[in-house]
Amino acid sequence: MSVSIRLKNISKGRQSIYLDFWPPVLNSQGRQSRREFLKLYVYQKPTTPQQRKHNRSTLKLAEKVRAEREIEIQEERYNGRRDDTTVIDYLCAEAQRRKQQTAKIWNNMIFHAQQHFPEHVQIRSLKVTDCIGFRDYFTGLVREGTLMQNTAANYFAMFRAALRQAYRTKLLTENLNVFFDPLRFAKTERDFLTIDEINLLANTDIGKPEHRAAVLFAALTGMRSSDVIRLTWERVIESDLSGPALNLFVKKTESFDRKPITVQARQLMGMRGCDNERVFSISYRTFRTFLKEWAKVAGIERRVHPHMLRHAFAVQLLSQGEDIYTVSKMLNHTDVKTTETYLTLVDESKRKAAEKMKIKLPKK
């Protein structure tokens, strides 16, 4: 094992100092790497006494770090991160390793970490009590009604994943996760809007027409609200022979899928716009809050959220006897088992319908 000081030319006649490891070592992401940049520089051709003095002191410091790294590697303590990495910096670096959609959720968790942890707290100095305190922070938000139980549990699970990675890369000397429990996920049941409730919405005139259209379009197509909001006209196919359809990119399968839509759904979209123009001018936050308010005004006396529209689409098709594999494709599920979870809702819907059929029998 060798650790050498190397120089790399940078701007303004300077050279950046980095360490060269051979053989390569595991970096903070758990990948093989040969370089660690020290964020130090020297002058390539010093011309003044101050510059020469700067070079001597900087190279002396770099040599000290090099020797420390060599000892750390020999004692299997090297982790590829600076010892002063803060909790927030570490979490941000972990978020960047994730895919875009997952990284957004990590950033939400980091927002809460910033509320809880002082910004100077270093990841290597974390204690079990600090982690339990963060768990209690989420428990308090759930109790206040600020966060849903499963949202809090998901955020805390991400924090535990970061701790696991920190231990794996030897930034933490012990696996803190074994000393405290995760937040439990609450059992959830898929809820859906009935066709009667959707008709109630359709016949309750509030808000902007395009907002109402976006919500009803989601119910008629089974699309996720986020996909409805992002939908642009270039994805809309107009055909006199096969009818209107959408050409949607499915991330999970990395391919395009043609999704037929009803004439009624196409009518809700209005007049065609430019290819790069969004079909519905509405944000996700507005979609969510508008649906909640619309349901309240329409007299729907229960908590309503956007995904209930997608559930309604699935339950309606299955209730009418549509093949489960067809419904699975309409929902862009990669596994039919995901679609099978709706069958319970269909059975419950049929049971409620059956209960409505009552005969007044004579009293004995």
From TrEMBL:
GO biological process terms held by the UniProt record: DNA integration; DNA recombination
PROSITE patterns noted in UniProt: TYR_RECOMBINASE
Domain of life the protein comes from: Bacteria
Span of domain Tyr recombinase: 188-355
Pfam families in the cross-refs: Arm-DNA-bind_5, Phage_int_SAM_5, Phage_integrase
UniProt keywords, alphabetically: DNA recombination
Protein name according to UniProt: Tyr recombinase domain-containing protein
Organism: Prosthecochloris marina
